């Protein structure tokens, strides 16, 4: 069973939302999950309508059945300072370095270093044990960088290999890699049923696979209901316009006669239906692309009120119902 | 409606003005910056300007159809641009041979440049009819796709001798900086813009901006990179004595040795040497990195530059657009207007979501009933519902529920009583289907119910978009707006770009209503 769920996807497709819903879904029935973000954007705090998260794990939600969701915003600079502190007992010198811009410099000039620190912290949370030997968190869910960067981000070993061939960073990278490439991890991608996000998803899956990272499932987000199918619209062709006008009239929107209100509505309504059908057709082409990946996929509805807290619980329930995707062994 | 309060953005005037030399398309991620930039490019070229579009990360199919799919980091002539004066209806989309963009080719027409500017302002009647009239000879479109790493490499090669250049290009820190530093793409886009401008080969440069989540990144990132490379710590690494010459010296040296020791312990031996090689190389090469960034930044404040903020009519995108508008003002950067992309419209905006849903439910429940008691009258239901309806104007009365009695109502009533009797006659009244049985009628009911539900959904979208738009307009009533309706599919060829261009320039602000 996957314990570290990494959620990526094209920008704006709903990574943060899906990661949060997944953390809620995983926390049901008395379990405990940790939701982490790594890009310093406070997206989780915004979503849960709480104040900015400090660099510290804190409870942000209760799942149905008594489970708990904790959250943490991982900060690379802080992580590096902690790390230096742990290994070298830097004391005030660490702060001096920070002031000088050295920490910033180091994490900027070596993005791989930054990534090791971020993924390292998440992996540490996965492995952390309570006194009785059971894990502190049943699951850790990461709101990860977008598809375009996810493989580099997770493939820390390769990224730091050129920079650090020995030393603790090197060792840390290797330890992180062991977790990330194990079946304990599942990398999920969020997409919409649109051409660009799907293309990015397909490319992203190929990259992840090439890097030997375990791909979990595809979350198809913001799915709109299909109200009219192609067949129904075909039936709506010219000869039935009058019948449609009659039906509209029976429904009470006006007269069915020529020039009557119902009759005048037929044209615009059929035009909208035509657009709808074209969209449905494009979407089904995208669904096919996704199906071609041979991965479990889950569909999440477009919430008409936007993804607020109530919506989040709805999505979580839906994920539970459809099942939590695992990485293929 | 409320949007009428916002002035309309006259895109054609902007494109035609010879004083417009640079147009920058900014906005939050995924809103349509690249599409807008490319569509403006096509339109400007077809209106007679020699245009180059700098795109960033275009969708693959779009890049292919523009002939810029290969990354060689220089502009390529785009084929299939239509010069002016073609006969109407001649739409050889895409396959007109290239190289014929020269002005002489056009058979007749308004001649190069000249007195067109007037007719633009005075509402051109139809949108489609005006197409060919809008075209003028002499235009060309060139396009390119930014390769940020290559742009960076080119700077290195141009500013260092061969040996030093090689050392830099091979340095692992340079490699990770040029490929991955957040902001490199933005900086390189600016760098490329500066280069294109310096070549002075084009009347008009249209710049797309990188896919970042915040439009502000485009303005901030180059400074970030500039100040990073020019930064305190790099100075320290380079010449500790220079910075800390006075009292700070001792402290800095202490800091340095901790840093040096720590870094080499952390990351292994060769690291520090690499850092120093890198920094030394960058330092001599880009002594004035910040100066450079500043120069490009100033280009964005120049009078010939116009910013277009692109946004979808969604809450986040418009909030982002509002921030950006404020920021441009603070930076003295000229804002031309807001492009509101992927706006939805309806030809039946007079029928509100609530009424459409109610009507759909009526039909559905009747359908159920009919399944049981075929041939049971329904005229009652229909006229009851009709009573609560006003015959709304084609657009504009949407939320006013339970519409009052207006002059159309009696006619509707008449219509109902005449037309809606049980089944077969109900249909027969209006068409040749009099003999069709209840099954046929049930089909029509189901279809109509579907159409109504679909319409209700569309009206809900419209309502949300309107609300978001109104919020923006309330904050920034002075910002001119151009609306582009949502096409059902993606935009990935010249015909699609042309269609977007027409929508950008059209005066109608209710897309789809026509
Ligand atoms: N299922 C949904 N229904 C409706 N709105 C949604 C849904 N999922 C996400 N959203 C909305 O879409 C927007 C983008 O979602 P979110 O912030 O989760 O995306 P993201 O991929 O994390 O974005 P970024 O790349 O900026 O981090 C938000 O406004 C969110 O509320
Ligand atoms: N008016 C429109 N109607 C329909 N589809 C559109 C419209 N405008 C843009 N699109 C489509 O939306 C998608 C995103 O557009 P585009 O690539 O231009 O956005 P962008 O702002 O450049 O995105 P990014 O931030 O990722 O660079 C594309 O697939 C494009 O074809
Ligand atoms: Mg996010
Ligand atoms: Mg783009």
TrEMBL record, chain A:
Domain named ArsA/GET3 Anion-transporting ATPase-like: residues: 5-180
One Pfam family here: ArsA_ATPase
Domain of life the protein comes from: Bacteria
Gene3D superfamilies noted in UniProt: P-loop containing nucleotide triphosphate hydrolases
UniProt cross-references to InterPro entries, sorted A to Z: ArsA/GET3_ATPase-like (IPR025723), ATPase_ArsA/GET3 (IPR016300), P-loop_NTPase (IPR027417)
Protein name: ArsA family ATPase
UniProtKB/TrEMBL annotation, chain B:
Transmembrane intervals: none
Signal peptide limits: none
Biased segments, Low complexity type: 390-400
Domain ArsA/GET3 Anion-transporting ATPase-like: from-to ranges: 20-68, 143-343
Biased composition (Basic and acidic residues): 113-122, 130-139
Pfam families: ArsA_ATPase (PF02374)
Annotated region (Disordered), positions in chain: 80-139, 368-440
Family matches, as SUPFAM superfamilies: P-loop containing nucleoside triphosphate hydrolases (SSF52540)
InterPro entries documented for this protein: ArsA/GET3_ATPase-like, ATPase_ArsA/GET3, P-loop_NTPase
Name the record gives this protein: AAA family ATPase
Species per Swiss-Prot/TrEMBL record: Streptomyces lycii
Lineage: Bacteria, Bacillati, Actinomycetota, Actinomycetes, Kitasatosporales
């Amino acid at each position: 069973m996957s314990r570290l769920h990494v959620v990526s996807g094209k920008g704006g497709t709903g990574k943060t939302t899906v990661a949060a819903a997944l953390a809620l879904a995983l926390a049901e029935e008395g379990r405990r999950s940790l939701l982490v973000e790594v890009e310093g954007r406070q997206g989780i705090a915004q979503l849960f309508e709480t104040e900015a998260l400090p660099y510290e794990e804190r409870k942000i939600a209760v799942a149905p059945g008594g489970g708990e969701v904790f959250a943490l915003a991982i900060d690379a600079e802080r992580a590096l300072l902690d790390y230096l502190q742990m290994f070298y007992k830097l004391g005030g010198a660490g702060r001096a370095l920070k002031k000088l811009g050295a920490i910033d410099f180091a994490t900027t000039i070596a993005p791989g270093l930054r990534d090791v620190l971020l993924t390292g912290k998440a992996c540490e949370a996965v492995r952390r044990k309570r006194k009785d030997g059971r894990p502190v968190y049943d699951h850790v869910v990461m709101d990860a960088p977008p598809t375009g960067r996810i493989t580099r981000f997770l493939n820390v070993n390769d990224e730091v290999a050129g920079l650090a061939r020995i030393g603790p960073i090197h060792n840390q990278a290797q330890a992180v890699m062991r977790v990330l490439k194990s079946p304990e991890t599942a990398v999920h991608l969020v997409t919409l049923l649109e051409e660009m996000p799907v293309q990015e998803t397909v490319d992203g899956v190929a990259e992840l696979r090439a890097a030997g990272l375990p791909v979990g499932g595809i979350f198809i987000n913001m799915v709109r209901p299909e109200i009219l199918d192609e067949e129904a619209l075909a039936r709506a062709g010219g000869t039935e316009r009058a019948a449609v006008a009659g039906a509209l009239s029976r429904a009470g929107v006006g007269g069915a006669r020529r020039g009557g209100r119902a009759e005048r509505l037929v044209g615009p309504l059929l035009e909208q239906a035509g657009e709808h059908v074209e969209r449905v057709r494009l979407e089904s082409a995208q669904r096919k692309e996704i199906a071609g990946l041979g991965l479990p996929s889950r569909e999440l509805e477009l919430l008409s009120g936007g993804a607020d807290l109530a919506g989040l619980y709805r999505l979580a329930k839906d994920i539970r119902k459809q099942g939590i995707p695992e990485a293929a062994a | 409606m409320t949007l009428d309060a916002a002035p309309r953005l006259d895109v054609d005037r902007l494109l035609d003005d010879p004083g417009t030399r640079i147009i920058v398309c900014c906005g939050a991620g995924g809103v349509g910056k690249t599409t807008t930039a490319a569509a403006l490019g096509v339109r400007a070229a077809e209106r007679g300007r020699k245009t180059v579009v700098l795109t960033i990360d275009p969708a693959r199919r779009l890049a292919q159809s523009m002939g810029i799919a290969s990354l060689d980091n220089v502009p390529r002539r785009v084929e299939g641009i239509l010069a002016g004066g073609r006969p109407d209806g001649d739409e050889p989309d895409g396959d007109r041979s290239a190289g014929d963009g020269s002005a002489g080719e056009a058979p007749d027409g308004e001649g190069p440049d000249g007195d067109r500017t007037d007719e633009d302002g005075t509402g051109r009647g139809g949108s489609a009819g005006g197409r060919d009239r809008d075209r003028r000879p002499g235009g060309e479109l060139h396009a390119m796709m930014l390769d940020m790493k290559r742009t960076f490499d080119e700077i290195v090669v141009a500013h260092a001798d061969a040996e030093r250049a090689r050392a830099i290009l091979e340095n692992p820190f340079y490699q990770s900086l040029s490929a991955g530093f957040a902001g490199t793409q933005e900086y390189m886009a600016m760098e490329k813009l500066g280069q294109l401008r310096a070549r002075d080969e084009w009347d008009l440069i249209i710049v797309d901006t990188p896919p970042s989540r915040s439009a502000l990144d485009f303005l901030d990132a180059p400074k970030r990179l500039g100040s990073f490379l020019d930064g305190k710590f790099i100075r320290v690494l380079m010449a500790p004595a220079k910075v800390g010459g006075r009292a700070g010296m001792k402290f800095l040296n202490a800091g340095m040795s901790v840093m040096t020791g720590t870094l080499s312990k952390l990351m292994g031996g060769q690291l520090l040497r690499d850092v120093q090689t890198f920094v030394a190389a960058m330092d001599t090469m880009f002594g004035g990195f910040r100066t450079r960034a500043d120069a490009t930044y100033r280009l964005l404040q120049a009078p010939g530059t116009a910013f277009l903020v692109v946004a979808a009519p969604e809450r986040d995108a418009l909030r982002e657009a509002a921030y950006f508008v404020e920021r441009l003002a603070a930076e003295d950067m000229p804002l031309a207007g807001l492009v509101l992309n992927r706006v939805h419209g309806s030809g039946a905006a007079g029928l509100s979501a609530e009424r459409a849903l109610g009507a759909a439910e009526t039909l559905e429940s009747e359908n159920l009933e009919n399944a049981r008691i075929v041939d049971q009258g329904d005229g009652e239901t229909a006229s009851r519902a009709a009573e609560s309806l006003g015959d709304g104007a084609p657009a504009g009365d949407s939320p006013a529920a339970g519409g009052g009695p207006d002059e159309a109502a009696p006619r509707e009533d008449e219509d109902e009583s005449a037309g809606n009797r049980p089944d077969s006659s109900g249909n027969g009244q209006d068409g040749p289907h009099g003999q069709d049985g209840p099954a046929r009628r049930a089909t029509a009911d189901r279809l109509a119910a579907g159409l109504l539900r679909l319409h209700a959904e569309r009206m809900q979208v419209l309502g949300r978009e309107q609300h978001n738009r109104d919020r923006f307009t309330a904050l920034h009533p002075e910002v001119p707006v151009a609306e582009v309706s949502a096409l059902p599919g993606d935009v990935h060829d010249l015909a699609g770009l042309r269609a977007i261009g027409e929508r950008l320039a059209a005066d109608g602000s209710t897309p789809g209503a026509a």
